[in-house]
Amino acid sequence: MLFRSLALIAALAISSVAADNDDGIVTMKLNKIPEEDFMMDLLSYHVPPTIMSANSLPSVATERKLVRGAKMQNHGEESVLLKNRMNAQYMGEIKIGTPPQSFQVVFDTGSADLWVPHEKCHSFSPMNCAAKNVFKPSSSTTNKDIPLGSKSQFSIHYGSGPVQGVFTIDQVTLGQDDVVSDQTFGLVQHTSGLGILYQKAKFDGILGLAFPALTQNPGTPTVVENLLSENVIKKHVISFYVGKDKDGEVAIGGMNEKLMKKETLNCIDIMEPARYWLTPMSAQVEFGGKVVSSGNNAGIIDSGTSLIYGPKAVVMKMALQLGGIFIPQANLFEISCDKEVPDLQFTFGDVPYVVPGKDLIMKDLTGTRCFLAVSMMMFGEAEEEENMVDVETLDEELEFGAAEDFETLLGVSKLPIPAGTTAWLVGDRFMMQQYNVFDVEKKQMCFAELKEGM
Predict the structure, then answer these.
(1) CA distance linking residue 241 with residue 243, whole number of Å
(2) Would you call 302 a catalytic residue per the annotation?
(3) How many CB atoms lie within 10 A of CB 247?
(4) Contacts for 248 with CB less than 8 Å, ≥ 6 apart
(5) Which helix (H) or strand (E) holds 326?
(6) Residue 308 belongs to what H/E stretch?
(7) Terminal alpha carbon distance of the chain
(8) E-assigned strands of 100-212?
């Protein structure tokens, strides 16, 4: 699920350059935006993600998400170099059609579809789509209509409303020259459901890399499935190196062993149903060396989310420990900039993974106000939702990689969590601490230590 937050995405500006290194890895660089800009958008509106207990959901909501992706000529894997966007957001460039039309997309492990704006989006949704790069089917010599009898209408319903358009077929280029031919993807004509945050955001669309079961067009191969069938990549594995104040990288098809210590690779079977990266923890959650969440904890690892979300009661205790003051419109706790924030520790596969306290602090554009980068996640029980009635929360489903920060426009993303499990949503603030491997084929989430200097 892509929980990053449209608002968060709105805080990024991109300038990407593709290059091939000696190992045949295609890379794309993204430019970092000042954290102050990110905080400005974050404070403008922030909605928490919502988790539903498995036995309280009659059906699983499959709508939503965003994306990420890439390949390696000789090793069957493709990499996209991601530049840190104020330690909050990561996007890259893809090209569609002939001649190629360029788009900035969010790479997300929580969704499986690719969509970009249609040229009609400028006229149908002028408020938030006017400045976007749009695809012009008539300008591409390789564009094809959807076959008769195939699904032709594209639609995803976010918490704030629907995003609608049509399906089309064309070639998609990752990096400089890795082409997926005859790719079916969505052309969005109506983006009003994304609200003003889409207008602010620097991304045009989303490229999903997750489980094919999450696609809005069942039976039609996703971008990753076509990369596999065309032998561009060999394995359905997506790996992330989320750089701290430096370039990061997403590799599609395998792992970049130059970035990680392979001997430390720790793989954990994710919880069923294998739709989201819900990974069981093997120990209690600790904050400053003290247990803050006991019992059966699990973490939803999401490359589309920037912050860390935890159970309401637990996060409130953590914030109060720091003298935090809740800011409803941002769904964040303001803390003193002089406060020393303890480390936060999660344990997966009996290995502890620590998020240093310094990475749990965010400052606003003035540099005088500080906020805790751990926010409250809502849970689907009726009493929990009623308790949050006075807190303005727009939800986090759209989050274009979004739930995580200000999901200011989407509605609520409801994920099924097994009864008796306490879920945390952990995004880039956690992922930047180690190398992260999403193994779709084995249904495993893996972590490895970064090499020195990374």
Answers:
(1) 6
(2) yes
(3) 17
(4) 81, 82, 83, 84, 90, 240, 241, 242, 432
(5) strand 325-327
(6) strand 308-311
(7) 27
(8) 101-108, 114-117, 153-158, 161-174, 178-190, 205-208
pLDDT at 453: 84
Q: Is 116 helix (H, G, I), strand (E, B) or coil?
A: strand
Question: With contact defined as beta carbons under 8 Å apart, do 134 and 232 qualify?
Answer: no
Which residues on adjacent β-strands are paired with residue 429? none
**AA identity, residue 356:** P
Alpha carbon distance 371, 329 (integer Å)? 13
d(CA 399, CA 63): 12
Q: Which helix (H) or strand (E) holds 320?
A: helix 312-321
Tell which residue, 296, 113, 239, 282, has the closest CA to residue 187: 113
| Amino acid letter for position 369 | R
Assigned token pair, 449: 């230590």
Comparing 43-47, 364-368, 392-396, 416-420, the range with the smallest average pLDDT is: 392-396
The number of C-alpha atoms within 13 Å of 81 and in the hemisphere containing its C-beta is 21
CA–CA dist 242, 88 (Å, integer): 10
Residue 108 a catalytic site member:
yes
Tens of pLDDT, residue by residue over 49-93, are: 555 444 433 322 222 222 222 233 344 555 555 534 333 456 778
Longest dimension (CA), the chain: 64
Q: Residue 137 to residues 166, 170, 184, 189: CA-CA distances in angstroms?
A: 12, 9, 13, 13
Instruction: Identify the CA nearest to 259 among candidates 238, 246, 241.
Output: 241
- Tokens representing 115 are 């969509």
Residue 270 has pLDDT above 80, yes or no: yes
How far is Cα 49 from Cα 317, in angstroms, rounded to an integer?
19
Q: Of 71, 66, 67, whose CA–CA distance to 18 is shortest?
A: 71
Query: Which contacts qualify for 126-130: CB closer than 8 Å, 24 or more apart?
Result: 127/192, 127/196, 127/199, 128/191, 128/192, 128/194, 128/195, 128/196, 128/197, 128/198, 128/199, 129/191, 129/198, 129/199, 130/199
Of 41, 302, 359, 428, which one is the catalytic site residue? 302
